[in-house]
Amino acid sequence: MDDKKIIFSGIQPTGCITLGNYLGALKNWVNLQKDYNCIFSVVDLHSITVRQDPTELRKRCMSFLMQYLACGIDGEENIVYFQSHVSAHAELSWILNCYTYMGELSRMTQFKDKSSKHADNINAGLFTYPVLMAADILLYQTDLVPVGIDQKQHLELCCDIAKRFNGVYGDVFKIPQGYIPKEGARVMSLQDPTSKMSKSDPNVNGFISILDDADTIRRKFKRAVTDSDGEIAYREGKDGINNLLSIYSAITNQTIDESVNEFAGLGYGVFKERVAEAVIEELRPVREKYDELSKNKDYIKQIYTEGAKRANYLASKTLRKIHRKLGYVDR
Fold first, then answer.
1. Are residues 313 and 258 in the same domain?
2. What is the pLDDT of residues 111-137, one digit of tens each?
3. Which among 5, 174, 199, 325 is annotated as catalytic?
4. Could you tell me if 307 and 274 lie in one domain?
5. Which of 97, 102, 193, 298 could cross-link to 243 by cystine, CB 3.0-4.6 Å?
């Protein structure tokens, strides 16, 4: 790799990649890849904290990787791979577990949320999930991590673990910084605009998949929750309208004020139609590229196989340094 700074990011292959993932993560990845050395992973190790159907998980992993490429990620210039194909992630996670405190992990809000949703399967992996996330990042001496607001706490813990380890063994890990985009970072559910748009939402009308067809997108926006005011304005208490304005602004690269002015005097029906059409046009090339990639499985395999080789090379450099610091016998 050259002297450009390193970016690492990944999405867990559960549910589907939503408009929220696209605007909050993938679109930014595409922009960032021009100026950074980028490492993008389908983080499949993270997905098994919840029981998965093996056949479905395998299909989803392939689909997610193809969606990365369809969104504009260059699989030849960047490192694009499956997390489970680089065993160093799991090895470093174990090492970092020994430098992470139980109290720190018990304060993670996502653990509390997920525990309440999966009360019959509160496993150790769910508890130590943030340590694996820290390993993902620190393994590649990452400079910048594009994260949503809901992952900020995990990134802060990652930095704390890295500083603690460095405090004992010297300059081993680079301390990463978070990159949180100002617009479109937090897209809310179309059915419950007080909650984040989620790829695991049981209500399919709450989210837009980036592979949804035009008719499905129109139907979901038509059913989007608004309010009874009849005024297109961005302010507290208008969660549904705020969400639609945020989505429209992120896609059109307008400010919220510019979007509000554009829709002044129009009704909610027309407003929702316009937002839907903007989303359809934004995602059209993604769906077309995905269909094209689906017919070229050999190329996809080449991308993730070469990606894993390059990732393994970088990861092994970090692990060798850590092994020496810890006192392991040289291999």
1. no
2. 767 766 667 778 888 899 999 999 999
3. 199
4. no
5. 193
